[in-house]
Amino acid sequence: MNETLVHVDGVLASDPVPYQCVEEDAEVYLAKLELSAPLQTAGAELNELFLNLGQDARGLKSGDRVTVSGVVVERSMITRSGKIRRGGVYQLLVQDVRR
After folding, report:
1. Which of 43, 24, 9 lies closest to 93, judged by CA?
2. Second label for 37, Cα 20 to 30 Å away, from 46, 72, 85, 91?
3. Sequence-separated (6 or more) residues with CB below 8 Å from residue 43
4. Short-list 86, 76, 84, 10, CA closest to 48
5. Cα separation, 37 vs 43, whole angstroms
6. Strands 89-98 and 45-52, how do they pair?
7. How many angstroms from the chain centroid is the CA of residue 85?
8. pLDDT in tens for each of the 99 residues of the chain?
């Protein structure tokens, strides 16, 4: 995936939740973002994606309107049973968030 910095607007569809990230070998906060306008990536058109907020939830909560900048990556997700989910999900590695 291209390492291009993107800026997106949307509404948080979930509160940030802690998640044990395999790629970063650390616990990070993820929040689902419903995009205001579809985002074109190399392989798909996205209407929603997960914000990878790193180790700080930044005081965000479900329903917040945000403008976010970062890099979109496709990552595998681990289910609660410990299995890797097929297909992966798109995450935005957050660099900046504004309400």
Report:
1. 24
2. 85
3. 1, 74
4. 10
5. 17
6. parallel
7. 16
8. 557 899 999 999 999 999 887 777 889 999 999 999 999 987 789 999 999 999 999 999 999 999 999 999 988 777 667 777 666 789 999 999 999
| Position 20, amino acid | Q
Tally of CA atoms within 13 A in the half-sphere of 23 that contains its CB: 12
Q: What are the φ and ψ backbone dihedral angles of 66, each rounded to 5 degrees?
A: -135, 155
Residue pair 55/29 in contact (Cβ under 8 Å)? The answer is: yes
For 41, residues 6+ apart whose C-beta sits below 8 A from its C-beta are 1, 72, 90
